[in-house]
Amino acid sequence: MGQDYMYPEFEVVRREDRCIRCGICVKQCANGVHGWDKTNKVLHIDESKCVNCQRCVCFCPVHALKIVKSEAGFRENANWDNQTMKEVYLQAKTGGVLLSPMGNPKPYPIYWDKLLINASQVTNPPIDPLREPMETRVFLGKKPAAVQRDAEGKICCQLEPQLELAIPVLFSAMSYGSISYNAHASLAQAAKELGIYYNTGEGGLHEDFYAYGANTIVQVASGRFGVYEDYLNAGAAIEIKMGQGAKPGIGGHLPGTKVGADISKTRMIPEGSDAISPAPHHDIYSIEDLRQLVYSLKEATRYRKPVIVKVAAVHNIAAIASGIARSGADIIAIDGFRGGTGAAPTRIRDNVGIPIELALAAVDQRLRDEGIRNQVSLIVGGSIRSSADVVKAVALGADACYVGTAALLALGCHLCRSCQTGKCNWGIATQRQELTERLDPQEGCRRLVNLMTAWKHEIKEMLGGMGINSIEALRGNRLMLRGIGLNQKELEILGVYHAGE
User: Fold this and answer.
1) What residue ranges define each of the domains in the chain, with the CATH number in brackets?
2) pTM of the predicted model, to two decimals?
């Protein structure tokens, strides 16, 4: 039927005067966009398969290719844009649920871009981070509300288990299965070199990565994939995943086509079977139930590791976080609605949850008002794009930030939003051996280390510019922020003044 025909979203433009018919574009494209007609000895293009991953453009030795967004489209208006119409046609044709990866692309406000950082001038001079000490380390875990002393008056230095980070950044949860072995290797090696942590996601821990346990956060999700005693004791911390920002209230699904021998062994499921995590943990229906799991995990690891509870940013997040803080958890991780994922129902991804900036400010204030802020540390994620976002998050009350999409970009991801197909041309969101080999773990590690090293320098510069010499002195210091282009209610929730005040 012709009524649901859709012109390709992207057009591949080949400069015939430059093209040398080397065939590299054919070899590099896993989607079958480029092909070679042996009979007529000509290259042909199927633009309907192009996802704009830019692989062919990057590898063309004579720069004969470029990909442009097609100008052809339906007659649209402000209510019915091309994408909305295409989605209706697609569902009318297939009867299926739409799946989309890589986070919410809708033009909702990005509050990081509406917050400005203060700078010192005269009475409170700035600090030069090149010549004066600047502390970027943070410790995640329970802290005493006040200095405690023993019977002899000596300060008690014994703390609950802590995670020490060289900078207030961690690599967020991405499971083995959703991303490749080589991507995991890159993250693990970089975390060790940087003195931070990476998160296994809900896919268990490959036996090769137990060597990086001191820099690993192991996750316990509703599917309990790969969870057993040695796994829990392998990591530096345990994270209970209750939800994630890209799909609040939704479970996970790894198609059986991605469950090869290695993933089968790691996840402890049959090879070729779908790995489905139910939306709820079937043993958690209250804060009391959550508390029981928290302490079960602490018992299993002899109280030597902090326990994190990860939740999506939703409307009543402040009340939820208050309950989690009282459940015995050491750290709360909050994931905003721009969080990335390998695949999520499109309608959930684009319409459920709230921005991490508002969630963070609300949670930090609620915990302070209840006098329990020191009982937990806060990690936030959901589109942390730069060192400036990290600094602003800390000023709003975060102890550290989860970084996912930015880390994948460092590995070569071009945000072509086709993760769910398993055909990632950059070797990241795929399990196909010929594709995963395109990502060199050593090179991936180097690029991640470079990115985080650059962020560390920038964080020091921004702290110095504010006249602050440690991350801890910035945490929750909202006087260092000013809003611009925000209404009064937004300023109230964020707890910041407008620029000029």
Assistant:
1) 10-96 (3.30.70.20), 138-145+167-498 (3.20.20.70)
2) 0.95
